[in-house]
Amino acid sequence: MASGMKRAWTITICIGILLIVFWAASYHPSRFGGGVALRDSGFFSYPRYHAELGDLPLWKGGEYQFTVHGLPPGPLDLKLQVLDSTDANRAELTSLSTNVSVSITDMRRERESVRCRH
Questions:
Q1: pLDDT, tens digit, for every residue of 56-112?
Q2: Which domain holds residue 57?
Q3: pTM higher than 0.70 for the full model?
Q4: Would 37 be classed as within a structural domain?
């Protein structure tokens, strides 16, 4: 009976150690900095993390640079969203002549810079 209890404790401790190691090695949103916010959609969602970099006024020409650090590892997608737009605005928005060019620079995986010009 004592060996059965000892085995159960050993298994419990091993599982606990594995969970701690997994947690310590995983990405923590608190590493993100330089942007507006980082939203975590949950473990089972894709994409899991959504980083908000800042506002890009499309009605003004210019160059805007957003520098962030601590982004999650793995492939990244860039998505530009027009705030407060609806399907009713779609025709008006697609007829605009605004051009946006983006360059994304990975600076030794510690700082990422997104530069938008229009």
A1: 877 777 888 888 888 887 777 888 888 788 888 888 888 877 777 877 777 655 455
A2: 29-117
A3: no
A4: yes
